[in-house]
UniProtKB/TrEMBL annotation:
Keywords, ordered alphabetically: Membrane, Transmembrane, Transmembrane helix
Entry keyword annotation includes Membrane: yes
Lineage, uppermost ranks: unclassified sequences, metagenomes, ecological metagenomes
Membrane-crossing segments per the record: 12-31, 89-107, 114-131, 137-155, 176-196, 202-223, 244-270, 290-313, 325-343, 349-366, 387-405
Keyword Transmembrane helix included in the entry's annotation: yes
Name of this protein: Glycosyltransferase RgtA/B/C/D-like domain-containing protein
Organism: marine sediment metagenome
Length: 507
């Protein structure tokens, strides 16, 4: 028995390490993130001055415009990593952050009883679809903290209800879930304070709490017995998990404003989407297209629906659904909410992908167990799991080798196809010091290369520029009526553009 347990633990470690290594190899690519560069420069400014910027220092089109730099701590980290190890260190940091987020999701799936093979296949499928979002930008820190949030809260749902001695003291039942044998929800506000200074994506952590809280509210309604619902929810021991989640959520909300910008970080995403109408012209804010590049996303979305419906039907037949209704509803809220966000915007695609292994994998397993009516697993299940592991290894090798052999950007360095590296080299040597109009995508790189000697026309900070400057940039890029007037108004003397005969003839 001991040798069997030891072998199983060794198998888990082996699969974990192999999958993690394959994920890392998949994301060793040249730097291609347009916005990375102004983050590096902002981090340099913060470390040099000891203060966060509060107005735009980088452009001549929106000088001194108020700027909420919600990712200031990420900028400091990225600049420090670059200073220590150059672009190569940034590439490894990117690969490690993505691997960490995916492997935490893998661990969450295993804790929910998903087999080694199935957890690995779903993790690697998510790995493939994360490719378009695998850019070295602050949201990678959000990926990691998102999965940490999930695994902490999910762990609370998998723990038993508080024992009677724990409930005897005042707030004892709530403490059981906040910092006792029922979970560690109290760590979430601390994580939120860190997250809010790394990236405004900390708001999705509140959505996770909300999804689990809503699921628990439904569970309390189902099992409340003859007492009133509000009493069961807010005073009885059966509602302790919900109350602990509520306390954690309120503390997380308070922690989210503990940044140099106060509530400004909390409002940033809402301001961006409501004040900048043209943000939808930016590719990452557009709806996820139904194309081959996102085929795995649409397939996993369909599998999610199938898994949840099948699990509900089979568990409902066996009367298990009532017992697990809180967990089931939380899973539905998570996948429906983050699925809708992903469909509405490519930028939000990652959240649902990171939940595929622990949520979809669990419901496939739960449905199978319900179909077998509790029969113990046998040699057939073990053989199936070995086949799944083999399939996972094959999938991981395909992804890694596709990057190493088939990918044009494999390795370390800056993608010269995406950035005007040689043009900027020339400008460094040229005596010309006038203002340049630049493409939206290249502003960040120009900031990194030339600030403070040169300022840019525009870069990726949409809320700084607003619809006015973004619209003017599009007018010039498209050669629409008045494009020359825009350049004259800003006293532009040169152009740095990707010249295409069809689109750039007006230049």
């Amino acid at each position: 028995m001991t040798s069997t347990i030891s072998r199983a633990a060794e198998d888990r470690r082996t699969v974990f390490c192999v999958v993690a290594l394959l994920v890392v190899i998949t994301f060793v690519n040249h730097i291609g993130a347009y916005d990375l560069w102004w983050h590096l420069k902002a981090g340099e400014i913060i470390l040099g001055s000891g203060e966060v910027p509060r107005s735009d220092p980088f452009s001549f089109t929106a000088p001194d415009t108020p700027w909420t730099y919600h990712s200031w701590l990420s900028g400091v980290i990225l600049h420090s990593v670059h200073r220590l190890g150059g672009v190569e260190a940034l590439i490894m940091l990117r690969a490690l952050l993505i691997a960490a987020s995916l492997m935490i999701a893998w661990v969450a799936a295993r804790r929910r009883g998903v087999g080694l093979g199935l957890a690995s296949i779903l993790t690697l499928a998510a790995c493939y679809q994360l490719g378009p979002r695998a850019l070295m930008r602050p949201y990678l820190f959000s990926f990691v903290l998102f999965t940490v949030f999930y695994i902490v809260i999910q762990g609370t749902f998998q723990r038993a209800a508080p024992p009677k001695p724990a409930c005897a003291s005042r707030f004892g039942a709530e403490k059981w879930f906040l910092w006792g044998g029922g979970g560690r929800l109290i760590v979430l506000p601390c994580l939120t304070m860190l997250w809010a200074n790394l990236h405004a994506g900390f708001l999705v952590g509140l959505l996770i709490i909300g999804a689990f809280g809503a699921g628990e509210m439904i569970a309390v309604a189902v099992r409340k017995g003859g007492i009133s619902y509000l009493r069961a929810l807010f005073t009885e021991d059966g509602g302790a998990r919900f109350r602990a989640l509520l306390v954690a959520g309120v503390l997380c909300l308070a922690a989210g404003v503990m940044t140099p910008y106060g509530p400004g970080v909390l409002m940033y995403p809402f301001r961006l989407l409501t004040e900048v109408k043209l943000v939808r012209q930016v590719q990452e804010w557009q709806a996820t297209p139904f194309t081959a590049s996102f085929a795995v996303f649409w397939l996993l979305l369909a599998l999610t629906v199938v898994a949840l419906v099948r699990s509900a039907w089979l568990c409902g037949r066996g009367a298990e659904l009532r017992e697990k209704v809180g967990q089931f509803c939380a899973d539905v809220f998570l996948m429906a909410g983050f699925g809708l966000l992903a469909v509405s915007s490519v930028r939000n695609l990652a959240w649902g992908m990171l939940l595929v292994a622990p949520v979809v994998g669990y419901h496939f397993v739960a449905a199978r167990h319900a179909a077998l009516a509790g029969e113990p697993s046998g040699e057939g299940d073990r053989r199936r799991n070995r086949l799944y592991v083999l399939a996972a290894y094959t999938l991981g090798l395909v992804l890694a080798l596709n990057n190493v052999i088939g990918g044009r950007d494999f390795g370390f360095g800056v993608s010269e196809e995406r950035f005007p590296v040689r043009a900027c080299d020339y400008l460094e040597r040229a005596p010309f010091k006038g203002r340049f109009y630049n493409e939206y995508a290249w502003g960040g790189y120009m900031i990194w290369r030339f600030w403070p000697q040169r300022k840019v026309f525009i870069d990726g900070r949409c809320l700084v520029y607003g619809d006015g400057v973004i619209g003017e940039t599009m007018t010039v890029a498209r050669g629409e009526e008045g494009w020359q007037d825009v350049l004259e108004r800003y006293r532009v003397e040169g152009l740095l553009v990707r010249y295409r005969p069809r689109d750039s003839a007006h230049f």
